[in-house]
Design a protein that fits this description.
Blueprint lengths: L4 H39 L5 E8 L6 H18 L3 E5 L1 H10 L1 H9 L3 E5 L21 H11 L2 E3 L6 E5 L1 H9 L5 E3 L5 H14 L3 E3 L10 E2 L2 E2 L5 E4 L4 H5 L5 H12 L6 E7 L5 E2 L4 H4 L17 H4 L2 E2 L2 H19 L5 E3 L2 H7 L1
Parallel strand pairs: 1-2, 1-11, 1-14, 2-3, 6-7, 10-11
Antiparallel strand pairs: 4-5, 8-9, 12-13
Helix pairs in contact: 1-13, 3-4, 5-7
Length: 351
């Protein structure tokens, strides 16, 4: 049988175009849905407290477990139709692109997900991780150095930028939109100023700082900050939950009461993907010298130390933590009279 290669080529081209159009349609539908949800959030701002669920993703030591945790988190949020911000860094995002395309596809297509961005060691701007004496650089020098990190992949052994694409720009190009929220937790005020400029130029809308109450419309070096009245590290309550000492309702209620009840409070409910299967941060043994995380190792780094020194959760602890997290998502979803779940795009519209 003869093959008509011209016809075959046309068929392949049509299939590619169809897939691209489907992805664009999905993205457009997601943006329309989020716009509608943010309008609703603005309308009820006078009688609600806001809950912003965030998953921080950073575990390149156990990428398979990391990918599974991201997909399971999205599944939970889709089940309850509750938005979630997923913060990725260059290190793990590179692995997802190369080895777990299903994660990338889900990040791009899910109507409940907003992709955001943060940094982790060995990026030298990470808090207490100035391994290259960046504090001695001028503002112009810093801009050139840090722009390299946000446009190129980072080498995990040397902490230097590589030639291939990476950083914020790579995530933006891969996902199809600028990650909405970024971390501004850097070593010096000059670094914060320069990074705020770089992120704004690339399209970021909100910055994050912790340690104090952040009210709506506050800025840092010209970048709007994500409001935050309460920061909840949900994983820290695991053992109280396992011992029957706390429920999603009792814990959220107590946190709201301590902060002044509201309405109009912003609650950041945070998880890390590795919380589900390890105790402690998986890459700390590679990059950090001491328990308080304030003294960095110097390159070159022994990447094998991450897995060698890992402490694992038991199957019972993992199962309980997933149930505890789902309880939190379900409770917020089932009590719209008390809470409004919002994602980064909603918050950016509101502030």
């Amino acid at each position: 049988m003869k093959i008509n290669y011209v016809v075959l080529g046309i068929i392949i081209l049509l299939l590619v175009c169809s897939c691209t159009q489907q992805e664009e349609n999905s993205r457009s539908a997601r943006q329309t849905q989020r716009a509608s949800e943010s309008d609703t959030a603005r309308e009820i701002a006078s009688d609600t407290n806001y809950v912003n669920f965030a998953l921080n993703v950073h575990d390149w030591v156990f990428p398979e477990q990391s990918a599974d945790a991201v997909l399971k988190t999205i599944e939970i949020h889709e089940r309850y139709n509750v938005p979630v911000d997923i913060f990725v860094d260059d290190q793990v995002f590179q692995i997802y692109v190369e080895e777990y395309p299903e994660v990338i596809q889900k990040l791009k297509s899910s109507s409940v997900v907003t992709v955001c961005y943060h940094i982790r060691p060995p990026t030298p701007t990470y808090s207490h991780f100035d391994i290259f004496d960046l504090s001695t650089k001028t503002e112009d020098e810093l801009y050139d150095i840090l722009l390299e990190y946000e446009e190129h992949a980072i080498n995990l052994e040397t902490a230097l930028p590589e030639e291939k694409a990476g950083g914020y720009e790579f995530v933006k190009d891969t996902i199809g939109y600028a990650p909405v929220t970024v971390s501004l937790l850097f070593n010096t005020d000059t670094e914060k100023k320069v990074m705020a400029q770089i992120y704004k130029e690339k399209g970021a809308k909100l910055g994050i700082t912790h340690g104090k109450t952040i009210k709506s419309r506050q800025t840092l070096y010209g970048m709007l900050l994500r409001p935050e009245d309460i920061e909840i590290k949900w994983y820290e309550q695991l053992y109280r939950y396992m011992n029957g000492l706390v429920t999603a309702e009792s814990y959220l209620t107590s946190q709201i009461e301590q902060a002044g009840n509201g309405p109009g409070l912003f609650v950041n409910l945070k998880m890390h993907e590795n919380n589900y299967y390890t105790s402690g941060t998986t890459f700390d043994p590679v990059y950090i010298l001491n328990a308080n995380r304030e003294t960095p190792q110097n390159p070159p780094y022994d990447l094998s130390l991450g897995e060698k020194n890992a402490e694992y959760k038991t199957a019972e602890e993992t199962e309980a933590l997933w149930q505890w997290y789902e309880d939190g998502v379900a409770y917020v979803a089932e009590h719209p009279e008390l809470y409004t779940a919002v994602g980064a795009e909603d918050i950016a519209e509101m502030v």
